[in-house]
Amino acid sequence: MRWEVRVELKPGILDAEGESIARSLALLGIAGVRRVGTARIYDLEFENVSAPEAERLARDAVDRLLANPVIHRVTVRPGPS
Amino acid sequence: MRWEVRVELKPGILDAEGESIARSLALLGIAGVRRVGTARIYDLEFENVSAPEAERLARDAVDRLLANPVIHRVTVRPGPS
Predict the structure, then answer these.
(1) Which ipTM value was assigned to this complex?
(2) Are B29 and B77 in contact (CB under 8 A)?
(3) pTM above 0.90, yes or no
(4) Average pLDDT in chain A
(5) Which of A11, A22, B47, B48 is the most buried (most CB within 10 A)?
């Protein structure tokens, strides 16, 4: 049983890494890129846990370790099995 | 037009961040997690570029900046519009 957590910055929060990549792409001559956003994926693999319990644990992991609610937008969804 | 690039480590390459997160979750009492894998998402937003051209530019960005073919597995797909 896998759950995939996606953590990205909320709209309005500066994505410094994305900005830096956009600038680097322009310098490399890769034009036409208006914006680069970044996100982090955490693929959590559970064992001996029911699907609802795994989701609960995944959301617990988000709240206590993986994301900061002030700046992050989080999506939790079932991962590829 | 958006393309989403997902960069993750190839199977067999140590995911140090994932391992560290798995250990931290166990220390927090969040049990049942067998493995944590991590990936990075780059959401590339293009302007004034056709869809095929945007895909070509996204793959060019992967080859020249975003990933290392020795250790990374890359997926490129159309992003949410």
Answers:
(1) 0.94
(2) no
(3) yes
(4) 96
(5) A22
